[in-house]
Design goal:
Order of helices and strands: HHH
Shape: elongated
Number of strands: 0
Largest sheet: none
Number of helices: 3
Strand content: under 5%
Structural class: mainly alpha
Radius of gyration: 21 Å
Length: 86
């Protein structure tokens, strides 16, 4: 993975905490920043997936032709399809 240099502006408190964490972990400040950004992005992706699932469940709830077991089965299949990229 190639890396590119960038500049960010942080509050002094965040910068101090970043330096302390990097020293405690024995890694660079840039690694701490990258780890934090990756965790944030994963959390954003998870929230988007939860929103998609809520939307799906709302759509299924509007269908009166499905009983509870069928609705759950359809939801499970949709989740599997999303997880497997299709």
């Amino acid at each position: 993975m190639s890396r590119r240099k960038t500049t960010v502006h942080l509050s002094s408190e965040v910068l101090t905490a970043t330096k302390a964490l990097a020293a405690a972990r024995g890694c660079s400040e840039s690694q701490v920043a990258e780890d934090a950004l990756r965790a944030y992005l994963r959390a954003s992706e998870a929230e988007a997936a939860r929103a998609d699932l809520r939307s799906l469940m709302d759509r299924l709830a509007q269908r009166t032709d499905l009983d509870d077991d069928t609705a759950v089965a359809v939801a499970v299949e949709e989740v599997r399809a999303v997880r497997h990229g299709g």
